[in-house]
User: Fold these one by one.
Assistant:
Number 1:
Amino acid sequence: MGVSALAMPRDAGSRPAAQIAGGLLAWISAIVVVLAVAALIVIVARAGWQNIVWVFETESDAGIGAALVSTLAVLGLALPPAIALSFCAGAAAAEPAIGAGAGRFLAATLRFGPSLPSTALGLAALGLITANPALERSVQANPLVAAAIVLVALNLPIMTARFRTVMRAVPPEWRVAAFAAGAPPVSMFFGVVVPRAMPGIIAVVLHGVGQMLGETAAVAIVLSVSTGVKFVNHALTFAPAPLPVHLWQRLAVGHPDPSSAPSAASETLILLVAIVVLRFVGRVLARRRRPSGAGA
Amino acid sequence: MSPLVERLFAWLGRACAVLVASVPLAAGGVLIWLVLRALAGAPGAVPAGPLPSLIAASVGTAILAALVGGAIGVGCAVTAEELAPSPMRTAIATAIGFLGAMPAVAFGWFAASIVAPAIANAPGALAPYAGAAAILAAMAAPTACALTTRALRRMPDAIRQAAAALGASRLQTTVMVLIPALRRQIAAAGLAAFARAVVEATTVQTLFAALANANGSVSATATSWILASATVAPSVSVVERLAPAALFAMLIAFGCALLVSREFRGLQWA
């Protein structure tokens, strides 16, 4: 491949139509995407903004307020263990001196693990729950904890793979220099790799938050054990669903009420704004925390 | 840092590594166990039922989505990396990044609010799947774009400079040198787009639910069937009935991921 790529085709100048068509297709794709995204933003902003105040004010039963609270609760339960576990696992996968055989085993499974479909994980969790009555009662009693556990399990491989990528992006010369100076592996990791990789680590954490914030299928499948999706938001005494599951219920469960369409638009807008803000904050923090020489 | 802390963190890292590595393996093991248990409980208890047609619907829809979304994603990557001026690059990267960050349920809202009304009166049983493919193409494009961008960035500048020294324009270099040289990586990006589309459940199920309410049509793919059935009636028998479809989705996703990772790990320019 490399050799053929280095050789300029002999008839490069004799196929202007193919060149123009190729370039035109690429440009059209890019312009279509930019225009489509702009149109989507305008549509969701127009549809969602009109009812956003109403949605917040009238929510005693079908509420976005309850959904936001449960979203924050699930995120609060899921994020700390997900970050801690995936950070340690990422360190083991990125640093052979720390991970040893376990790190190599993890690196092998990370080639396919992050692609685990959420429906498959949700159904596997549901299979375990329904096969074990004690576990089922426990999930019914603590649905948000169950949702958080599923989110952690779903995001662990993805976050670990990203942590490993940002840690391995630190040039090996830094490690060699630290080892040559007599630093042990873990000291080298925290003293050299982590500060250099800090912008990437922040980005991975915020990506993880975004991923958990938007996850629907696995959480909906597990929550269906606790309350049944049709009754989740009939009262606050029932466990309210996180925002994406709540939105999905409005849109796709049973016979959606057409009058709830504006509320669904508002919820979509809130979800999108939250994710856009997360991405923006991630970029800003990553730029501010970039140490000198990080891009070396 | 004391030697004890050093050793503790190393063991903690190894324990976490084993835990993380076991998540996908455990999920696969549980699904296989569910299928075997259903088969052992009553021979033939896992009916083929709608599964073959659901798999065909999933694969067909995902292929269409991967063709369209993959082409769009590759086009965006090539334009942003090689052809466009700087402000346009930023606009393309922002737009494709926005699509990539959008949660599936937000795509579901667009599917239910825009796509479903547009195709509700379309003739033919395949119209819902065409609508699903259109939405899935938008979801798959960022995947193809990200992988193609990575491949383009790993291409040494010496290749571009060599082409320029021979008198090639930027367009000629891109179309006649870079894209042919990266055809395997571009195919892998298309495969990743296919994998992204074939396992998607929330968006597709939302679209099909909206269409069912609008015109009574009954459509499903393997994963949308899992989501719809498991959430309505979560029970042992239902889970066992759905397990083969989930296993199919997982195997497809893992197989595609292995192929894609193999291709992108092998991108070495000595």
Number 2:
Amino acid sequence: MRTVTYIQAVTEAMTEEMERDESVFIMGEDVAWNMMGDCTGMVEKFGTERVRNTPISEAGFVGAGAGAAMVGMRPIVHMLIAPFMYVAFDQIVSIISKSTYTYGGQARLPITLRAPMMYGVSNAAQHSDRPYATLMTIPGLKLIAPASPHDAKGMLKAAIRDDNPVITFEDRSLWGQSGEVPDDDLIVPLGQAAVRREGTDVTVVTVAGAITLGLAAAEQLASEGVSVEVIDLRSIVPMDTDTILESVAKTGRLLIADPAHEMGSVASEISAVVAQHGFWSLQAPIARVTTPHCHVPFNADLEKQLLPTADKIVSEARALME
Amino acid sequence: MITIDDGVLREMYRRMSRIRRFEDTTKELLLAGELYGAFHTSTGQEASIVGSCMALRIDDSMVGTHRSHGHPIGKGAQLDRLMAELMGKETGVNQGKGGSMHLSDFSVGSLGETSIVGSGLPVSTGAALAYKMRGEDKVSLCFFGDGASSQGTFHESLNIASIWQLPVVYVCENNGYGELTSAKDAVSVEDISVRAIGYDMPGVTVDGQDVLAVFEAVSEAVDLARDGGGPSLVETKTYRFENHAVGRLPEHYRSAEEVEYWRTQRDPLVLFRQVLIERGFDEQQIDDLDAAVSEEIVAALEFARQSPSPPPEAAFTHLFADPAPSAG
């Protein structure tokens, strides 16, 4: 085992897959310049044909990725930040999510869209979105949000090898975090949640970077005698509802921590699933710690008060225990 | 006049005839209630389609539009599975999942049609990127209309194809109307091909009712692309004989005289028949081609009618790709 950062794990995943398979390449704005620091050493190794800078034309290069995938390539398309996907939304929805279905299985779209999310760092409303819930409403897409260096590597490699479109939401609050990653070829299957901490009183399901908050809250609550089970959702579509329902059957209490806006969120979907299929296990109402249905302001203090925190999770979890 | 051997001329006429007769039949079936859904026919645009597709090899790819019954036929698809698709049958080329606006046939390089105007431009550009990266000598051809030339994807795709010198040919079928609005009111230039200048690529406008003119222009563009010379824009001036969608919209936006003019004076099959006669074919040979196509249509119709509808569970298949065969 080695200790690497999340961002190093991402680089390793892409590099290994490009070494393994010539049909894999990455394109996006400024990838050859390693603008985000996540393509370190890749131009030197693969050249600018396979580490390909694009013009600022999201619909153009996302759609080009779709076309290349349809004829046998495995593009990784770097969105730079997740909200830039809005510019390419028709290509993602009308072409990427629907072509395999509409053409009766004739088309295969092994394309990976990397969608880093920056929030909580004063970039204001347009640059700070966590739009996985928007994409979750569209059938035909796999959505993941790896939340550790281990999963950043193993799930990205699995995404690149998947024959279907996968959008990976990388929470930039995690990019600097370190963790153990094995040396061998690491594949983490998509569609499985991970129990990060076992507990018996409250189930806390976290989405993306909320894992950091969930684990910190669990530590705090443990000192108060509350045993928290922390589940890192990891895969949004397909969603591992079995793991969540099993945990709730044990704890009887559910809190979901999700950095996205609350309305129509992943937290809402999990709430509905548990209310429908795990209702009789519940000893308290379901709690959601999310961002209110309100845009993200520039002012750092204004922004901070909107986003989930460990304290908010602690206080909501305490309320569930009353 | 370019030299084209008689076999190619015959095949051109045959494909045009297949499109015309296919469309005449589908229109009848739609109006009789046997077909359903939004329905945009290729009638009148046969020369543009066939002249372009005949410039391609079978392993080259092509992307169509919402008005694309004719494009897979032009690329060489079998009629029976296309007809079955229009009826939503299990034997349809898309197993009944795509219908009129999404015909395709990946086996002949018809990578599908997309019903969001302009959305096929990036896709065909990406196919060309794949061919270039793999060092293959294939060419990608993109059909789109005058309406799509106003989409941002047109600009983005032509710019990308130019900077990367991709083997792609953009064929703009300018039929004069984007939905109901005249190109005169929606497009800033008389000839859309002049926009090629902005992307530093060749651009040419040809008579889209003259199959040989289209074939010649697209062949030149295909040759250039195949030889590593990058993309081109070819505009074919054409006309759709039917309304935007058959049987469901008002047609007050264009005059009956205009439609009549194109139908009687600018019918690409009639024009091409004259050319074939001038080149030494006799009327009987051409009539025989038409008759053979008519028989093919009857057989396709029979096949489609006899085919089963998909079972209810088919609604849930192909949401994701079937597992690929193991690479070993």
Number 3:
Amino acid sequence: MTIDRPGGRDLKQLTDTVLKNSPDGEPRELIEVALSIIARDAEKGDSVTAAYTNHLTSFYGQSPPNGSANLNRRFADDIRKGDMDGGERAKSAHDILQAHARARLEISNPEYLDNP
Amino acid sequence: MTSGPGTNKTVNDPAIRTRLADYIADAAGANACAINQIDRLEGGAIQENYALDLDVSGGAYCGRLSTVLRTSAQTGVVDSHNRLSEFILTHTAYEAGVLVPQQLWCCEDETVIGKPFSIMMRATGEARREILACDESVAAARTTIAEQLGQQLAKIHTISPDRHTFDFLTPPLSPALSAISYYRAQLDKRSGAYPAIEWGLRWLERHAPADSEIVLVHRDFRVGNFLIDDGVLNAILDWEFAGWGDPHEDIGWLCARCWRFENTNRELGGIAERAPFYHAYQQSSGRKIDPVRVRYWEVYAHVRWAMIALQQADRYLVGGEANLDAALSGLRLAELEIEILRMTAPKAS
């Protein structure tokens, strides 16, 4: 699930631990939310990461030399330095961030997108 | 993320219970203290709260006392004060006439229950956000509660560095720039990068207010921390994040979209319209609310919540606490990013 933590695998492990240690102790609602996220992450997580990497690769005009994590780091550093403060670069960066946040919301809480 | 000190045994452990009763008797100047009942209270994502019913023999508190014991959870977040600092701040608010439970004792001796704790009088009411935000029984009272909240926040903001000093708090020259620097340092300690949070921090840096009045801000003034009893505000809870800051920070936090939940049209934290709160606050404080500054601090609220979300996830990922609620809070990051980006979109050229 890209930068979101815990990712699907970690969340599955935690949910299993919670169910094992205290099957009646955790509110059922929380368990159901976690199981839904795990299922959506298994279905969409990889494609969300791939789409984000494609967007960044296209933005910088090159493939990531050492993987998508480095490109994500470079993007974050450039934003902090002020390289995305204005003009078309700002608009493109904002579009990429918004698309990525929306795609991750499709996994973590798709109902949020229905409530503008 | 921080780790709580001491044992994970609960205060219901017989040996702990005996030591606790002895501590209270001593702190209260009583001959003896019996603990009649201890129940874990709901809520408190970072702290644990227990309802503690006492029978005190002798001394100034002689008789039956309904109290709350507050202590740290197994893991927490770095921004949260320790028990003594929170105790001092809450007591200061009480002295200023703010509706807060009277603080009784604070114990830093970890041999009593395994970690520091404080004890306060128990105020009546319900703090669950669903009561204030959704329950029809309080629907007619929401505007009045909004006014009460405005009056209470004005009282909190009368506490200023001119008249109060706390050795654990330093007034910042610029609350906004100081917070931005703090959160960047927090991000730099993490292995991953968070471009949307960086985007929010950069926007905050570029739009930071030139100057700020400095007052005590609660920093978690929102539904969930308001104790409502029979449709009336009875107490403001959870002072673990309080510190010196811009008064608009508390208003921005309360009004930020992330605290409205399903009631997005009730802009005052999902409770009511802003107007009755603004009017009451301005009347009580004599301070004019600047809507541009409130909006600035609403953007900040989402950035801050995003940083807390990362720390909530760490409680499991780093601290190993099997806390599903905290882990799911970590997964609210994308919601918060959406709000940061919505409020800071670049202007069309």
